[in-house]
Amino acid sequence: MPSSEVQRHELLLIPLSETELKRPLLLVWNKEKPFTPIQRAFIALLAQDAPQLQILL
Predict the structure, then answer these.
(1) Could you give the residue ranges of the DSSP H alpha helices within 1-57?
(2) pLDDT per position in the chain (57 positions), as tens?
(3) CA of 16: how far to CAs of 11, 12, 20, 22, in Å?
(4) End-to-end CA separation in angstroms for the chain
(5) Rounded Cα–Cα distance for residues 10 and 43 (Å)
(6) Is the dihedral of CA 10, 14, 15, 16 positive or negative?
(7) Which partner from 33, 36, 50, 57 sits 20 to 30 angstroms from 17, CA to CA?
(8) Around 9, how many Cα atoms within 13 Å sit in the side-chain half-sphere?
(9) pTM confidence score
């Protein structure tokens, strides 16, 4: 179901096929403070596509 913004013609849906969209991601953290369970879960999710992040877990 389209969002209300689409229904009000404030946004336009543009179908994309076979297009890979990537952008850089930068992680910043305090080395002296352990990750919370939520932060660990987020890093684990990111690590599915960027295995080098496993070192943080």
Answers:
(1) 4-7, 37-47
(2) 567 898 898 999 888 888 888 888 888 999 999 999 999 999 999 999 889 999 988
(3) 15, 13, 9, 14
(4) 37
(5) 34
(6) negative
(7) 50
(8) 0
(9) 0.57
